[in-house]
C-alpha cells in the first residue's frame, strides 16, 4: 500500500493526488510540510451544497449516457458530443481512486477524480468539470483563482492521455449559477447552467512532477510560494511574537 507521507528510502509507489500537485505549484513549502513531514494546512469545512449540485448533475448526465444522447445544454452551445460510456466511469469519479497513472521516472502513483467525460464524433474524449457558484457577474475563467481550475483540467487531460485515451485539448466547465433575484427563498434555489470551453496544455505536468520528486527527496524545506497566504500569516505572526 503506497504511503501517505513520502519516504525517500522507500521503494513503494507514492500516491500523489491532483490536488497535491496543485498545492506544489501554489507553495512548495506547504507541499513539503504536508507530504514529507506530515504537517498539513488547517482544514476548511466542506462545500456540501456544491457536492449536492455535482451529484445531481452526474445523475442527469448519466441518464443521457445510458441513452447515448446529448444534453440540451450541449446542443445549445453547439457541442457535438454525448456523455461517454465506460465501465470504469464510477471508478474515475471516486475521490481517492480516480484515473491513475504510475509515473515510471518517479514511482509516483498519480490520480485525480473527474466529474464527467464526453465523446465527440471523432471518438475523442472531452474532460468535463462541474462548478457551482452564485454571482451576478458574467461567468468566465478570467479570475485569478480560476487558474487552479485550468490546471485541474490539464492534469485530468494528462492522466487520460498517459492511459492511452485519445483526449481532445478542449475541455468543458459546466457552471451552475444560483440566482439571487427570486422574491423569497421558498426552500429552493434556482440555477442557471452554462458551459465554458477551455483549450488545455498539459505539457507542464511532466516537468512539475520531476520537480516534485526533487523537492521530496531533499532534506531542506523549500521556500514559500510568492502568494501563499498561509506562509505569509505564519511569518507575520512569528515576527510579532
How does this structure look, described?
By secondary structure, the protein is α/β, with parallel strands linked by helices. The strands form two sheets. Strands 2-5-6-7-8 form a five-stranded mixed β-sheet. The protein has a single domain (14-240), classed as Lambda Exonuclease, Chain A (Alpha-Beta Complex), CATH 3.90.320. It starts with 13 loop residues before the first strand and ends with a helix. The model has no long low-confidence stretch (mean pLDDT 92). β3 and β4 form a beta hairpin. The protein is built from eight helices and eight strands; from the N terminus they run βααααβαββββαββαα.
Write down the CATH class.
Answer: Alpha Beta
Question: Which structural category fits the helices and strands?
Answer: alpha/beta
Strand content: 15-25%
Topology, number of strands: 8
What distance separates the N and C termini? 42 Å
Question: What assembly state would you assign to the polypeptide chains in this entry?
Answer: single chain
Low-confidence stretches: none
Q: Biggest sheet: strands side by side, in what order?
A: 2-5-6-7-8
Summed over residues and divided by their number, the pLDDT gives a mean of 92
Helix content: 25-40%
Overall radius of gyration: 20 Å
Based on Cα principal axes, name the global outline: globular
Largest sheet: 5 strands, mixed
User: What pattern of helices and strands is seen along the backbone?
Assistant: EHHHHEHEEEEHEEHH
Overall number of structural domains: 1
CATH architecture: Alpha-Beta Complex
Q: CATH topology, anyone?
A: Lambda Exonuclease, Chain A
Total of DSSP H or I helical runs spanning 4+ residues: 8
